[in-house]
Amino acid sequence: MKEISLTIDGKKVSGLDGDTILDVCRANGIYVPTLCELKGLTNVGACRMCVVDIEGERRPNPSCTYPARDGLVVSTNTEKLEKYRRLILELMFTEKNHFCMFCEKSGDCELQAMAYRYQMDNVRYPYTTPPLAVDSLSEYMVIDHSRCILCGRCVRLCGEIEANHTLDFAKRGWKTIVSADLAHSLGGSSCTQCGACMQACPTGAIFSKLSLYKTRPKDCQQVNTVCPICAVGCELTVLTKDNNVVMIQAPQPTGEKGPLCRMGRFELLANGHKRITSPMIRDKEGKLKECTLDEALEAAASRMKKLGKNFTGVISARLPSETISLFCQFMRQAVGSSRIDTMGGEAYRAIAEGNKAFNKKGDGLDTECSLDEILKSDCIVLVGADPVKTHPIVASFIRRALDQNKAKLIVIDAANDVMPLRRNQWLRPKAGTEGILLNGLINAIVNKGSVKGREPSAKLVQSLSQYDASRVYAETGIEAADVELAAETYGKAKQAIIIYGQGVWHTKDTGLVISLLTLADLTGNREGDHSRVISLKPAANSRGAWQMGAAAKDLSLNHVQGLYLLISDEQVDNDEVLGWLRTIDFLVVQASYRSAVTSMADVVLPSPIWAERDGGQYVSMDGHVARSQKVIEPKKGLLQDQEILRDLSKKLGYELGSSQEVSCGQT
Ligand code: SF4
Ligand code: SF4
Ligand code: SF4
Ligand code: FES
To answer: pTM above 0.85?
Structure first.
């Protein structure tokens, strides 16, 4: 970008073509007060705090919206400007209820900080303080309209980054408020509860119900770690006070992965489940009783010894790689069993087998593209996936692509109408006929001449000929015109992406994955070794666990005599899994919370929650490696999962090595 040169406060400074005056000031260490501006959002010049004098202009102009250009002469801190800024501040204070001592944000408020800066010991205008509502109907947040300075950061963040467009301004004049869906309270609106608007709000107008009056951020310790829930792998800034987690924020709400989602920001803080603080064993009357750790380990070890290679181990993929690796080592070396899986391991088997069959190498996980590709797409096909529920940041990336690139969204799902207000097409095949629909789609693309990538082989063309429109309609129930429309939209797109999820791998039909990869390949949606296809892996470290081979084998789970289930703080609420657990003769559960799973266990071992865990490695769904950190000390007497594994191993007469020594795939 071209360099430009201007004069600010008498000094020659440089900037880049396209910068605003505020950008140049910041780049050159010149302070200009701001309130409505937030890095990463478009600037709107709402608050006027950043006004500067520009030679040749009749009046002060906001520096956040004024384009810098060669030769400009700018003043940022004249007496007149400072008076003007103080006047604006006074008007903000008189317009609404900014009595700081009653405000949750006091001590951490940008408006209050600005008032200190301008030594605002009085105001010269009458207070108007109109009666404005407090909206507390949202599950996690409160909007107090009396604290709002109408800076619009929340509105822009909700629109530009979360791309949900829930917030906007409503009414006029002094009655103007930030409104959810123009008339609703936040709770009854389209809000995704991402909490980004709350983090972006410079005042106490939007605040968290979970962190309310607990502390001020400046009095907290901050630890950056990895979100342990879904496979997007967001970074969390966790604020703690007195060994309690009080707030979770995005390191940069307008940054790379955006604003966090309701799960990472709020649900990690409060889940309402009761902690397990002591080991337990089932007594002769069949009741779970608290016991010493030694007794619990003894009971678990004696059955593991007896069953040996028939004992099964299943571990949560929300745990760091080091713990998963040690668990595999424990199962193989100490128990003598290779019956090892992770929660959601069936996803790996379907994805890896499909990728392998298509790419003819490894498990093919590294042939998928990165999440950023979604932002560049002009057509998105969602297959058996509901990222709004399972991977909310992926959903916000999709919405951004729809907004910014005018992308088209095609949903292929036998059961769910995903993103109903945003999709262009919902293809709803009869359950179990998804493969026929996908092949029909490929056939239509080939017939329409939309092949832009690898030419289909004669064998493929021959096999596709079975999927003509009449067969596809007869079996899937999808009209030929709908298949053609989808084929045209996807085939003509410049950069299309396919995102698939559990609706695909639950079928255990590897052919579905192969069809999706074929679709991308024929239409040229491939860059080198990477197809524009993403599988929504189920848990934060699924990919890390899978890379170690922890889910490589499809175990026969018909009759499991003994199971060691290390779920830590993951909740198991799937009826099918719960039903299966009931059939197991001897169940050892290592968990953080009481649940239906622990209530059917024979031995319960306590486990730390995400924040108490020692740090470790996580691999996100698109292969980004990050390290989690311990945020708070575990509850008194609670051991780390790895320490329990080592103690249990000793009971079996085996000393475990370092957690990285043996990968799960090794025997
Ligand atoms: S929480 Fe998120 S979706 Fe809801 S209003 Fe705020 S920014 Fe928009
Ligand atoms: S609620 Fe907060 S962020 Fe939104 S306009 Fe008001 S002061 Fe600004
Ligand atoms: S999108 Fe996933 S990784 Fe990001 S905050 Fe939400 S649950 Fe955590
Ligand atoms: S920061 Fe420029 S007008 Fe608000």
So the answer is: yes
